[in-house]
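Predict the 3D structure for this chain.
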Amino acid sequence: TILTISIFSYSVMYVTMGRLKTLIEVDELKHRRYAEITQCISDAKRDSHSYLTEKKEGMLSSIVLNLDEALKRLEIIKKKSPKISPDEISIHKQVASGIQRFKIAVLNYLKIKDGDPEDEASGQQLRQRALVSSEDVLQLVQAANQYVDEEIANKHRQTLKITVFSQRILTIGLILGIIFTIFVGMLLVYAVSYPIHQLVNGTKEVAR
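Done. Predicted structure below.
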């Protein structure tokens, strides 16, 4: 029975830790993807600042390219993740929506500049909207990174708890097994030695 409990405990620990290890590997890959998205958004924000404030026209294609790359990597995260929590789905939607708002704001600013260069009020308003959108989406991606970090930390803690619990069970099983073995050994010694002792005493009585 003790051996059965120990084997069962070890099997559960092995299977559970294997599953958690797989989930952690997926989350770590997810974390790297989010880091790449953060880099894309940071580059787009930097280029948008040059484009919107310093009027560097060549930056527009770089902004759009980085934003499209961020959306593509976000889609990869959704496809590669075996199970996504409702909270993470909500984060994905917010990030994707923020990227789209940023992109639209930059392109709308381009239209105002090209279509009506004298409309300074509208241009300034759209420029400010694009700059705010770039900051907002960067904060959303950083929040997503933090969420994944917390998920990984929680799973590491779960793995540690399972390991400690299983080690305790195995240790208790080993100790009980040793005690049981000693107890059985003592019973066997008594069971064998008692009849011999009785036989010896009987022989002594007959000899007298």
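The CA atoms of residues 172 and 178 lie 10 Å apart.
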